[in-house]
Amino acid sequence: MNSERALAKAAAWKRRSHRLSLDLRLKTPSDARKFLREHSVVLWNGKGELPNLLDAILGRIANGKERLTGRAAENCLQWSEQLLQEPEFLECRFFAKQPTALHQDLWPFATVFARLNRSRAEDGALVSRDAKRILSYLGKERSADEKQLKRVLKVSTGSGINAFQRAKQELLNLLIVVDNPSRISLELWEERMPKPVRARADNISEKEARMKLLAATLQSCVLSNEKRLSTWFSWCNQDCTETLEAILMKRDFLRIRHKKDRWIILRHVLSAKSVTSKLTFR
Fold first, then answer.
1. Which residue among 32, 73, 125, 153 is buried most deeply as judged by most CB within 10 Å?
2. Averaged pLDDT for residues 34-63
3. Residue spans of alpha helices (H) in 59-157
4. Burial class (CB in 10 A: 0-12, 13-18, 19+), 249
5. Within a domain: residue 2?
6. Residue of 29, 32, 61 lying closest to 47 (CA atoms)
7. What pTM was computed for the model?
8. Would you list the DSSP string of 156-194?
């Protein structure tokens, strides 16, 4: 199979896998729950290589206005809030600094990096002074709402509030902290994790965690332009090039060169007899 045909087949598979078709669009919160379980890594309404809930509700890629207003956007917001009340889903800045739904199967692997980044933030110059102040307070209190944090850190002026928001984003982008929507608070990633997740993370190496998270993301994407991979993981403390080569050696994924680009494709997509043969919710 030549590169052009391989990419076309992968693109068709991706459209169906991401539910970019009216006959496959998500119609209920139950559909959305299955969609998140199937992919493990899903954006809510942001544009990117990953599937996103809003597009799957529409059955096509949303335009700019539809990402903010309309019935699909309202359903996306309501369903995401509903799903985040369930114990198996977490929202974090996992992919390209965007709010990402992460299934509990991946939490132990992400916890490895949350721990590493927290240690680096506390010991070095990984984050700003303001981010360190937030981290120091959360280290004592475990969680706090924004109003409480601003009061304790004496944030009141416009410039102070802007600095606070930037510091908060720093910590979110490194997976050091997560928003807790049920309590409207900010809390340390480690405190958000159930005890079994923390115990499992104890036995996972950084290399193993990086491979698992990159492979899971590539699988959810189905078809990925290799040059975009460097923009995916702001929480990762090194380039993923070596990790990608190790993943390709396992032969679950294939690199396709076409013109000036290199694409990463799920290998079984190219060997499937049809684009519907393996598309089932797990």
1. 32
2. 96
3. 71-83, 107-123, 129-141, 146-152
4. exposed
5. no
6. 61
7. 0.91
8. -SHHHHHHHHHHHHHHHHTTSEEEETTTTEEEEHHHHS-
| Residues 72-97 pLDDT 10s | 999 999 999 999 999 999 999 999 99
What pLDDT shows up at residue 157?
Answer: 79
Question: Is residue 158, in this structure, part of any structural domain at all?
Answer: yes
Residue 141 counted as domain residue = yes
What sign does the dihedral 264-227-17-280 (CA atoms) show? positive
Domain membership flag for residue 228: no
Domain hosting residue 130, numbered range: 107-200
Reading the block at residue 194, the tokens are: 């159930």
Q: What is the pLDDT of residues 140-164, one digit of tens each?
A: 888 888 888 888 888 887 788 888 9
Number of domains composing the chain: 1
Given a contact cutoff of 8 angstroms between Cβ atoms, the answer to whether 94 and 102 are in contact is yes
